[in-house]
Amino acid sequence: MGDKKTPLIKLVRRDQWLLMMFLPVFLYYLIFCYLPMPGILIAFKNFTPGHGIFGGDWVGLKWLDQFVHSRYFWRLLRNTFLLAFYPLVIGFWIPILFAICVVEIKNSALKRFTQTVTYLPHFISTVVIAGMIINFLSPTDGIVNTLLASIGLERINFMMAPEWFRSIFTVSGIWQSFGFSSIIYIAAIMGIDQEMYDSGKIDGVNKFQEVWHLTLPSLKPTIVILLLLSIGGIMSVNFEKVYLLYNGATYETADVISTYVYRQGIESQNFGFATAVGLFNSIISFVLVYIANQASRRVNDMSLW
Fold first, then answer.
1. Measured between alpha carbons, how far is 301 from 256 in angstroms, rounded to an integer?
2. Residue 257 sits in a domain of what CATH number?
3. pLDDT tens-place string over residues 188-220
4. How many domains does the chain have?
């Protein structure tokens, strides 16, 4: 007779401390992601507060049709995509390059200092970051405009200029996140077999060849997985940051689906319409990550599922 399977209770007792560590994460997703899912019904109903999510008349795809044919649809879709696409294209590779450079630092004190300085912005509140950006770019006493004036250039009211919003959002986002995002790449590089590098040195490869032919190929699985996860969140632009930085003058390039949902749902109390728009955004995100996953599976034979 074969060995009996380990009873569930024994497995729980064996891994009880690991399960305790996982419990807060499980509760977070259960409470804030899974339990509210029945609320999707509001997107297909003429919802009235007080009647519950199962009350109200069924309207089908009325709210979604109204959004798709509204004058704001293409502007919101374009802004949402671009404000996520620019940081992805420009900023995705910076943590990889930074991780490679950090690993090459031989002085341990300098390495720790560099990592600490670049990690810190990630832990700064979005409200504080937005305040710093507004103060630095102030047209009267901001450091950027002060420097422009000192070299004889005209002051620019950056926060009221639609053409500057995407650049400000992208650059500040990359600065805030690249250090912390590099942690996983540093860990992956440290896990690469050192014998590969020793063999490369014997064969006479230079540092560039070492990075291109040894380090990056070894990082490929990590890069692909993180890229797929990033594509999955491409429609989830940082709502808090956009909301704190944008204004009526910059709606043309700054208004995104999440801020539009906030105005419609919270400020205008058009809950059914706002839920339908949010559901549309989630569906687009799912389609994007599915397509990216299938393409990665065919090209690199690597995928999330």
1. 34
2. 1.10.3720.10
3. 998 888 888 888 788 788 888 888 888 888 898
4. 1
